[in-house]
Design goal:
mainly alpha; three-stranded antiparallel β-sheet; 7 helices; 188 residues; 10% strand; elongated
């Protein structure tokens, strides 16, 4: 349900094409709300049908026309209402945690390899976030308010990555100790 509101919030800043919204999801919003291009276009159709957004056809030289979407007054009202509605805490659905909880049924090295792969991805994501943060800090006090709010989402992303990496290191230390214990039992 939040996809529609992420799109409305994106359009509240300026009119955009579906492609531009999808690019924004790929590079910014996508770090905390994933949506495929197909999902975005499908939601834009629904929002148009509900009169929460409208579009104008933009003619292009030697290319097909494109739709530029803009939020309507009804769309702003829906977004405003959604912003003031309390948000539920989302349940954790992490297949890796299910595997860890059943870890006694496999070799520690199997889990360690998977945790290492996840850790590497979180480390890559953390480096991307830290580059964004550096760019933000270089702007000094001239950062627009909208960017300051986006920075709050960036900070949460950084903290989540750091916590995930710390947990992975703790889990890997445990698995390494388990492997050593199993090896000493086998040798003895």
């Amino acid at each position: 349900m939040s996809l529609r509101y992420a799109i409305l919030a994106s359009l509240d800043s300026q009119p955009q094409t579906g492609y531009a919204i999808a690019r924004e999801f790929d590079s910014g919003v996508g770090y905390f709300w994933h949506a495929t291009h197909q999902q975005i276009y499908r939601e834009l159709r629904k929002l148009t049908d509900e009169a929460l957004v409208e579009f104008e056809q933009i003619q292009q030289d030697s290319k097909p026309s494109k739709k530029q979407y803009l939020i309507t007054a009804s769309g702003r009202g829906a977004l405003s209402e959604w912003l003031t509605t309390p948000t539920e805490i989302q349940p954790i659905r992490d297949p890796l945690l299910v595997k860890i909880s059943a870890g006694h049924l496999t070799e520690p090295d199997v889990l360690a390899r998977e945790i290492l792969a996840h850790r590497a991805r979180f480390d890559e994501r953390l480096k991307v976030f830290q580059r964004y943060e550096q760019t933000y800090r270089e702007c000094g006090n001239s950062v627009p308010v909208k960017q300051q709010y986006l920075y709050l989402t960036l900070r949460r992303g950084i903290i989540v990555c750091e916590a995930w990496i710390a947990w992975a290191d703790e889990a890997l230390a445990f698995l390494s100790a388990e492997t050593s214990a199993q090896n000493s039992i086998s040798a003895g």
